[in-house]
């Protein structure tokens, strides 16, 4: 049986894109999953898919990760209903478009930082504290190549994702040795977000990577499984790049 069988995995942004792929892949390994995103109906659809396909428990929950108190409530609910959390995947993200840097409003800036940085901080603090006091666990942050190769159309997002590197290092020290905290840093993935990329951006990105293509959402799954299990037992505070060989 898989090492993940019977474990409880919470995936934020789990109703679509890479998050949905992670949920299905971990459920296929026998994990019970919590599908969290802002829209409950979308979470319910994925949870139903998972129950039917893999025969595991699946809890759909509405969660806006920018809401401090909502993060607390969801963690309390998951622990109460599922018995604990063994793996947390901070996958939820947001990168709204803006016409130019001088037209980035305070509301947009604060929203991007809240979803991509404040939420992961709060969830990691809550879940990691429980893991460290219990039987341990793994926390995986989903970052972005923007953290080290920022584009002008995504600077608030890039800054937030760079902040995840700091949180990863800090929480790894704070919660070790029982809890491992790592970041997966994807390059260009063809999720629904990519449908709103500016014209010509995909071609530009593909010209910058050794594999000369963008990734499909399922190509993140191997790294998530690796960091969720004892296959990565001596890995913490690390950033794992999955970017096709970005130049």
Structure description:
This protein is an alpha/beta fold and 247 residues long. It has a single domain (8-242), classed as NAD(P)-binding Rossmann-like Domain (Rossmann fold). 43% of the residues lie in helices and 15% in strands. It has helices at residues 17-28, 40-54, 68-82, 106-133, 155-175, 201-206, 221-228; strands at 8-12, 32-37, 58-62, 87-90, 137-142, 179-186, 239-242. A 7-stranded parallel beta sheet has the order 3-2-1-4-5-6-7, sandwiched between helices. The longest helix is centred in the middle third of the chain and has 28 residues, at 106-133. The protein is globular, with a radius of gyration of 17 Å. The model has no long low-confidence stretch (mean pLDDT 94). Keywords: Oxidoreductase. Belongs to the short-chain dehydrogenases/reductases (SDR) family. InterPro entries: NAD(P)-bd_dom_sf, Sc_DH/Rdtase_CS, SDR_fam. It comes from Micromonospora olivasterospora.
User: Strands of the largest sheet, in order across it?
Assistant: 3-2-1-4-5-6-7
Q: From the coordinates shown, what is the CATH architecture?
A: 3-Layer(aba) Sandwich
DSSP summary: helix tally: 7
The CATH topology corresponds to Rossmann fold
% residues in beta strands? 15-25%
Shape: globular
Organism: Micromonospora olivasterospora
Family: Belongs to the short-chain dehydrogenases/reductases (SDR) family.
Pfam families: adh_short
Keywords: Oxidoreductase
């Amino acid at each position: 049986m898989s090492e993940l069988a019977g474990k409880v995995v919470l995936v934020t942004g789990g109703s679509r894109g890479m998050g949905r792929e992670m949920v299905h892949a971990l459920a296929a390994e026998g994990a019970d999953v919590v599908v969290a995103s802002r829209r409950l109906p979308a979470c319910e659809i994925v949870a139903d898919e998972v129950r039917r396909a893999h025969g595991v428990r699946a809890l759909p929950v509405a969660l806006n990760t920018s809401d401090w108190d909502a993060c607390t409530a969801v963690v309390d609910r998951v622990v109460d209903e599922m018995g604990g959390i063994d793996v947390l995947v901070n996958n939820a993200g947001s990168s709204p478009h803006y016409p130019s840097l001088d037209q980035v409003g305070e509301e947009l800036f604060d929203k991007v930082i809240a979803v991509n940085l404040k939420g992961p901080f709060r969830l990691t603090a809550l879940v990691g504290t429980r893991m460290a006091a219990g039987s341990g666990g793994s926390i995986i942050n989903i970052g972005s190549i923007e953290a080290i190769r920022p584009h002008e159309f995504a600077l608030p997002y890039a800054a937030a994702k760079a902040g995840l590197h700091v949180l990863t290092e800090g929480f790894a020290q704070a919660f070790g040795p029982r809890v491992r905290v790592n970041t997966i840093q994807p390059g260009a993935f063809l999720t629904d977000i990519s449908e709103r990329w500016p014209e010509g951006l995909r071609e530009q990105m593909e010209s910058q990577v050794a594999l000369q293509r963008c990734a499909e959402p399922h190509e993140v799954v191997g790294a998530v499984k690796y960091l969720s299990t004892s296959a990565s037992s001596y890995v913490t505070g690390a950033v794992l790049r999955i970017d096709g060989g970005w130049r």
